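Quick one, tokens below. Sequence please?
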């Protein structure tokens, strides 16, 4: 403020700097003074044509500054005739940048960078050309608006003038700065008479600066006055809000110290948003996406980094949003920043010019006081660094983590040194984040990893203090996670960790934000997200936890209220287009991320999310209804009703991309334009939006105006011939109509022009060239016809429609795809990398609420405060060279845009305008739409109910690849022979009819129909996802099965014919999973119930399986049943109570009427989870608290309750007067209930008697019994189906399976048995012919990772390798453990008997291999060649290998995760083991897929390998030739493979659920899609006749037929 006061009203620069003394200024070359006859005073003359050698510099050195804050610079000079001059000015911006502004008659065109502006100068006497000054050049007063120049061209705010350099060939009288607009042609007397005063911002030129004018003469006749000024320079746009998050990273967001504001990047802009109001502030200055942010301890200084080749760091004053410093040290990929608590030290991690990791530490102590930032220390390293943080207790200490390392760093004596933390067996983990427990001991810090391990590190000893592993919950549903354990198993992949003084927050790959106590004993609070959580951050007060996801969501959890709030959602890819609903203030956007989203313009909250399998390209709102249309890249046009999320219509009238959509203003018609030149007209007054007319392909490079009601061509303009001087073919890109009063059609072209064309005659009225630096991508005209909007590359320009001057606004980091005015004309919206909302500060002369043009009422809105417009435009500058479409072969014409408006004279005429441009080729895609909701103020995200009865599909990371080569019927190389196990995760997924003997159940995506007498199986294949439930008709001739859809599609219900096993019909209706199915008593109706995401009851006809009626309810439904006494009656139970339903038939119409009844008060606040009818109109319901309620169906009244169990009841069955209950306490209970008349009369629970009870091995999920409840079949979550006989009070296992993941399956040498092992620590042995479980060996609290059989005849022993590093040998004959060995300190990953059975070879996760004696249990040899990389495979074969120069009788190999294979020769009787060959398959480091190797069973001298590499392939390596002799290409990365001894067959399993059978000799293959998850094991039998495949706990046995 003080500096501004002394500089008012102006500063005489030459006098202020005492130029004549040359102490504060410098001169170079030929600089002299002379007496000018025109000005009659002494002036400076600079001669010499080399600017670098002849100049005057003010001030003397670059470290000094003029510090002149005046807005306007006045230069009084005269260029030398026939010569060139240059003037350089360094201007400091408030953002911290120094911008050089140069002008010269030497420059031919305008050029700009982020820090330099170059302007061509046209002398006043020149004839319109830039060049040497003419001989008649006069003294000139140049006025430059410095604030305007920085604002318009760089979007910067002017601070002060730093330096001025006057170079070559000019005479200079003086320079001065001022905040006043001074007129040199006005004398003091004239100014006084005109009322000009400095208080009004104007005035005459000061006397010492004025040019002499003879009495009676005119100033303008003698001198030139050039004004480079915007007299009213307030920007016409002001950035208000941005919808978007992330860009370069989704792992970057900060809390302020107060905890009421979050700071996060949105591509190149940093956003500060108050969480209470959503108000945003912006930090603008980066030119590429922001990759890192960090605060100092009190949130006053903010540092940011940008990615790309311009990896600069900016330091900001957070409160003022101005840039304090900018510096560049790293070459690129700056990924991590960390401020010290004091703000005096800043640390960054990036890459140098050789792409090597470089850590730099800067001294930022003086940056807030205007000082420079210097490098304290830097270091190069080969270790991977994911994140790096400065310790809060010491500015010189840091900690970093990455793949395979955690390191401590310290700055000492100008050097940056590090030491690794001793990670012992955890050295191979992929560490993701580190966190300090602030406020406590400096010795305590935590590191998280992708394997779920949390390491507590002692800072002083540089060692691990404690290790914990976070595992998913063991309960079958997500709401109960009280029991968290830290044993071995599949851990939670933790992406981020944050620690407060009271708890620790983790964000993980499974989408959960979890809060833990500091001992990690249990989860006490969690929040589930739609995608992986990439960032968690606890606020300083510990009351809020922020979370960010990879899907672009940002929110926070309020710890005290346990409420979660979403702060920002965003598209994860570029936004292609938008449309605004002005009535409801909503905006819909289409994005490359294949979603269409609807947003509230005021709250910025996402309301709806529509997901597509291809790319939506264009969208348009209906002018009055809550309806929008969407066009996609495949040519489909769909119309959606937003309120009901219903697809109203779908049309494919275009072969190419839909590039334009529009509704007529009255909403009666809709129009669409295709990229190949087709145009379609639809009747939007009807719900189906049927097609009225289609106009075929039009010619290229033309603009058409068409009257669509008659489909007549009204006007055609060929823009390619408008520029006769151009050598290239011009074409139209975008079009729009101006308001009807002007009658203009505006066209942007590929030559970077805007053409004004008469909409009546097609005559070219005017044009503007070089509109943007690149081609104009969008344009729009305001409703009052005063302003024009254009977008080109990353900038938006606002033009005065009539006078053509423009203002440019930047902020986008990617090309802008569309820009338009909001319907109320008070805002501008631009989309590209994100959604930008700008305040439009136009000057409106009348109230917009009553403004009309030619009788047409404009959009309503309140009057705004006025912002003056430019009255003196800046010079028209040639801003860039243009990009033109190259010439070549033109094969097809493309529509590029669509614009609609009213006709010029009548409302009955509707015009549509299209542009066509040329392209070389067209790509077409096919898509389907799925509608889904997201949480918002009006649509809440469904919450899964807290009861086990509700089906939840098992979490899967695999996705099905449907583009596979499945074999033709009858030509299959494999036939599914048997399915081992039952899916205990399903609900009511078993049916049994005692009369017909039908017995069916599900395992994975297969329906298994088994003969209980013979054990033979039939398999119904039609699903690709996990089956949730089954239902059977009363005549047992039809079975229905339901499973979720793949890839986000709707669920699939298959209707099976029991006799021949064919699928007679399919239903795809429910959005989520299907919770329940039921057939009516007469089998005329079929009922389906959606899960909690889509709680809807749908009624279908079993004759046609057409939808008859549907009813949506407010809460989740758990069970449904038809009444056995009345076919029209049914009931449902759910979270909100009991629903009595009746079907009413009128002709062909069927209506489903529902009456909800609340739960009786005496049972408390519970959910009804199960129900069943008896034969006398009595309905029994079970609750999640263990109560059973009896209801009178006629009065819909509960007349009796009793406590039937201590847990949740999930199964209820009634036969006569006997009632069966099954619960999550594993109890199966049989109750005797009195006759219905006795219950009605007495209403007492004394008439309910517990007759029998059984304890099973898991929660009861399905049951089926005979008519008298004597015998039945019951399924549990343990994967077991039990035969129950109440008469004998016995239970027999019918079907057994693994509940958890199966890690290995192996045949015995004689194929009489096979063994499986799993995550639950069990080793199970089965008989091969009938697949019955013989014996199960269980080890508690351990996981069994691998198993093998002893090679002795009969396979007498099986050995398992466990997660505690032990081997256990079990003898089959005695069913007991024979020996326990402990050769490894870490988990065993592979195990194998030697070929003769003399030793056991085993390998651990640390890469060490052990050779142990199965007799003594001693470890006889340790092999460390693979140390550090987990072993994936060990295989032994008998082989004489004298041809290799070694003696012995066995060969064995080991493959490790680092893509290395070792081959060994051994003679164990002689204690010989020598390395035969070492194979290395180099590839980038990655965790997937595994490295696998095996000997060829036909030629053991051949090793087959597959793993991660440049190509997906199988490699055949010859040990004799020492090279790869053959390769077979794969379509997917192999997760497992097995080689058959018969037919040269190879089985390969992939993460895409594909089992591929390959014939190695020919490369011929077949694909099989019978699993619902990623394949992890495949194993041929020794004979090659059978094949086992495993996906999670699904075990399939195949009969091998061959190829």
């Amino acid at each position: 403020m003080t500096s501004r006061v002394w500089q008012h009203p102006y500063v005489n620069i030459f006098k202020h700097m005492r130029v004549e003394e040359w102490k504060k200024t410098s001169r170079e070359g030929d600089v002299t003074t002379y007496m000018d006859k025109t000005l009659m005073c002494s002036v400076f003359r600079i001669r010499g044509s080399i600017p670098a050698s002849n100049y005057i510099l003010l001030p003397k050195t670059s470290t000094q500054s003029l510090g002149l804050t005046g807005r306007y610079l006045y230069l009084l000079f005269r260029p030398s005739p026939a010569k060139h001059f240059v003037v350089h000015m360094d201007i400091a911006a408030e953002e911290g940048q120094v911008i050089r502004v140069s002008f010269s008659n030497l420059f031919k065109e305008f050029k700009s960078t982020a820090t330099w502006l170059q302007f061509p100068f046209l002398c006043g006497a020149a004839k319109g050309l830039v060049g040497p000054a003419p001989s008649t050049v006069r003294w000139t007063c140049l006025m430059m608006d410095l604030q305007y120049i920085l604002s318009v061209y760089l979007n910067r705010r002017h601070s002060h003038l730093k330096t001025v350099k006057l170079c070559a060939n000019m005479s200079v009288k003086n320079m001065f700065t001022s905040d006043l607009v001074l007129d040199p042609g006005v004398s003091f007397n004239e100014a006084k008479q005109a009322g000009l005063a400095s208080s009004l911002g104007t005035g005459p030129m000061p006397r010492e600066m004025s040019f002499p004018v003879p009495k009676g003469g005119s100033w303008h006749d003698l001198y030139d006055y050039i004004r480079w000024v915007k007299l009213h320079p307030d920007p016409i746009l002001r950035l208000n809000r941005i919808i978007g998050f992330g860009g370069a990273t989704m792992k970057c967001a900060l809390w302020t110290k107060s905890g009421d504001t979050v700071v996060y990047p949105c591509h190149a802009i940093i956003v500060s948003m108050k969480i209470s109001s959503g108000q945003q502030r912006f930090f603008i200055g980066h030119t590429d996406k922001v990759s890192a942010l960090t605060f100092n301890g009190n949130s006053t200084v903010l540092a940011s980094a940008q990615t790309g080749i311009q990896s600069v760091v900016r330091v900001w004053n957070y409160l003022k949003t101005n840039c304090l410093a900018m510096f560049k040290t790293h070459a690129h990929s700056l990924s991590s920043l960390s401020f010290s608590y004091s703000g005096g030290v800043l640390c960054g991690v990036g890459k140098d010019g050789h792409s090597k990791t470089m850590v730099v530490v800067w001294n930022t102590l003086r940056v807030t006081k205007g000082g420079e930032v210097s490098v304290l220390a830097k270091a190069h390293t080969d270790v991977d660094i994911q994140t790096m943080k400065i310790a809060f207790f010491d500015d010189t200490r840091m900690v970093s983590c990455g793949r395979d390392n955690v390191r401590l760093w310290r700055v000492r004596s100008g050097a940056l040194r590090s030491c690794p933390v001793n990670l012992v067996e955890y050295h191979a983990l992929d560490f993701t984040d580190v966190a300090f427990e602030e406020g406590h001991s400096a010795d305590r810090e935590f590191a998280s990893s992708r394997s779920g391990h949390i390491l507590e590190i002692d800072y002083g000893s540089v060692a691990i203090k404690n290790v914990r592993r976070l595992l998913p919950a063991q309960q079958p549903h997500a709401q109960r996670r009280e029991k968290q354990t830290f044993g071995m198993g599949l851990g939670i992949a933790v992406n981020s960790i944050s620690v407060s003084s009271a708890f620790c927050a983790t964000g993980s790959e499974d989408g959960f934000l979890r809060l833990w106590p500091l001992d990690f004993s249990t989860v006490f609070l969690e929040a589930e997200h739609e995608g992986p959580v990439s960032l968690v951050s606890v606020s300083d007060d510990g009351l809020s936890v922020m979370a960010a996801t990879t899907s672009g969501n940002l929110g926070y959890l309020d710890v005290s209220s346990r409420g979660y709030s979403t702060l920002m959602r965003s598209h994860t890819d570029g936004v292609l287009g938008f449309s605004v609903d002005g009535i409801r203030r909503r905006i819909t956007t289409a994005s490359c991320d294949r979603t269409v989203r609807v947003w509230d313009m005021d709250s910025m909250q996402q309301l709806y999310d529509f997901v597509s399998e291809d790319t939506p390209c264009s969208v348009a709102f209906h002018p009055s209804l809550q309806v929008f249309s969407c066009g996609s890249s495949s040519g489909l046009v769909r119309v959606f009703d937003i309120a009901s999320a219903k697809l109203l219509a779908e049309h494919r009238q275009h072969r190419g991309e839909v590039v334009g959509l529009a509704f007529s203003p009255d909403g009666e018609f809709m129009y669409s334009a295709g990229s190949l030149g087709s145009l379609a007209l639809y009747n939007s007054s009807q719900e189906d939006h049927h097609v009225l007319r289609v106009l075929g392909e039009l010619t290229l490079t033309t603009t058409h105006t068409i009257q669509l009601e008659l489909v007549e061509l009204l006007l055609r303009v060929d823009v390619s011939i408008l520029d006769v001087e151009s050598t290239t073919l011009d074409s139209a890109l975008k079009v729009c109509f101006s308001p009807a009063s002007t009658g203009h059609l505006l066209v942007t072209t590929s030559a970077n022009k805007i053409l004004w064309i008469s909409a009546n005659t097609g005559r070219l009225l005017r044009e503007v060239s070089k509109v943007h630096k690149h081609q104009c991508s969008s344009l729009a005209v305001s409703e009052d016809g005063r302003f024009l909007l254009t977008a080109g590359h990353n900038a938006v320009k606002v033009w005065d429609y009539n006078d053509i001057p423009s203002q440019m606004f930047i902020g986008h980091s990617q090309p802008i795809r569309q820009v338009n005015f909001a319907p109320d004309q008070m805002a501008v919206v631009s989309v590209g990398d994100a959604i930008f909302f700008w305040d439009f500060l136009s000057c409106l002369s009348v109230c917009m609420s009553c403004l009309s043009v030619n009788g047409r009422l404009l959009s309503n809105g309140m009057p705004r405060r006025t912002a003056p417009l430019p009255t003196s435009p800046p010079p028209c500058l040639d801003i860039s060279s243009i990009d033109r479409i190259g010439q070549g072969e033109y094969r097809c014409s493309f529509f590029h845009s669509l614009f609609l408006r009213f006709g010029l004279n009548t409302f009955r005429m509707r015009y549509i305008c299209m542009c066509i441009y040329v392209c070389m080729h067209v790509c077409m895609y096919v898509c389907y739409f799925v509608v889904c909701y997201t949480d918002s103020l009006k649509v809440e995200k469904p919450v899964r109910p807290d009861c086990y009865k509700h089906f939840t599909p098992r979490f899967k990371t695999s996705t099905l690849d449907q583009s596979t080569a499945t074999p033709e019927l009858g030509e299959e190389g494999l036939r599914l022979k048997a399915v081992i196990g039952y899916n205990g995760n399903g609900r009511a997924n078993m049916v049994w009819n005692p009369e017909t003997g039908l017995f069916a159940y599900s395992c994975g995506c297969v329906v298994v129909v088994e003969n209980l007498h013979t054990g033979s199986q039939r398999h119904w294949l039609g699903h690709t996802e996990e089956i949730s439930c089954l239902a059977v008709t009363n005549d047992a001739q039809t079975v229905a099965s339901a499973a979720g859809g793949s890839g986000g599609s709707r669920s699939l219900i298959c209707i099976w014919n029991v006799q021949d096993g064919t699928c007679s019909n399919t239903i795809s209706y429910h959005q989520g999973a299907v919770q329940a199915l039921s057939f009516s008593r007469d089998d005329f109706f079929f009922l389906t119930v959606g899960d909690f995401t889509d709680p809807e009851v749908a009624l279908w006809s079993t004759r046609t399986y057409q939808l008859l009626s549907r009813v949506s309810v407010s809460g989740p439904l758990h069970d449904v049943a038809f009444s056995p006494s009345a076919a029209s009656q049914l009931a449902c139970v759910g979270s909100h109570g009991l629903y009595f339903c009746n079907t009413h038939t009128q002709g062909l119409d069927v209506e489903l009427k529902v009456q909800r009844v609340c739960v009786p008060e005496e049972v408390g606040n519970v959910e009804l989870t199960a129900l069943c009818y008896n034969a006398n109109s009595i309905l029994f319901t079970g609750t999640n608290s263990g109560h059973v309620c009896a209801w009178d169906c006629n009065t819909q009244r509960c007349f009796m309750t009793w406590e039937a169990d201590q847990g949740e009841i999930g199964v209820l069955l009634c036969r006569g007067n006997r009632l069966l209950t099954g619960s999550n306490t594993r109890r199966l209970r049989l109750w005797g209930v009195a006759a219905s008349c006795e219950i009605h009369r007495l209403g007492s629970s004394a008439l309910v008697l517990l007759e029998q009870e059984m304890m099973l091995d898991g929660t009861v999920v399905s049951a089926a019994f005979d008519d008298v409840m004597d015998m039945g079949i019951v399924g549990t979550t343990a994967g077991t189906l039990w035969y129950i006989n109440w008469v004998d009070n016995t239970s027999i296992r019918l079907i057994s399976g693994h509940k958890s993941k199966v890690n290995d399956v192996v045949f015995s040498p004689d194929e009489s048995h096979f063994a499986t092992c799993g995550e639950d620590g069990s080793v199970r042995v089965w008989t091969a012919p009938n697949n019955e479980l013989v014996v199960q060996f269980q080890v508690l609290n351990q996981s069994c990772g691998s198993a093998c059989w002893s090679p002795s005849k009969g396979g007498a022993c099986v050995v398992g390798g466990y997660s505690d590093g032990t081997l256990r040998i079990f003898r089959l004959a005695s069913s007991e453990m024979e020996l326990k060995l402990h050769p490894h300190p870490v988990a065993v990953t592979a195990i194998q008997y030697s070929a003769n059975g003399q030793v056991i070879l085993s390998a651990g996760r640390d890469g060490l291999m052990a050779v142990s004696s199965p007799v003594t249990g001693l470890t006889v040899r340790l092999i460390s060649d693979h140390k550090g990389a987990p072993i994936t495979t060990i295989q032994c074969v008998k082989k004489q290998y004298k041809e290799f120069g070694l003696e012995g009788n066995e060969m064995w190999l080991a493959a490790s995760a680092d893509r290395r294979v070792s081959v060994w020769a051994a003679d164990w009787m002689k204690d010989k083991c020598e390395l035969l060959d070492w194979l290395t398959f180099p590839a980038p480091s990655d965790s997937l897929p595994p490295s696998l190797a095996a000997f060829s069973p036909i030629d053991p001298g051949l090793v087959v390998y597959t793993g991660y590499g440049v190509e997906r392939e199988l490699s055949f390596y010859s040990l004799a030739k020492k090279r790869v002799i053959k390769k077979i290409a794969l379509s997917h990365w192999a997760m497992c493979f097995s080689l058959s001894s018969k037919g040269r067959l190879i089985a390969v399993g992939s993460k895409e659920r594909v089992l591929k059978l390959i014939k190695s000799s020919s490369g011929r293959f077949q694909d099989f899609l019978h699993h619902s998850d990623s394949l992890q094991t495949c194993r041929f039998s020794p004979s090659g006749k059978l094949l086992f495949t495993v996906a999670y706990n699904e075990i399939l046995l195949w009969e091998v037929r061959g190829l």
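The chain has six helices and 131 strands. Confidence is low (pLDDT under 50) at residues 474-489, 698-702, 704-710, 843-939.
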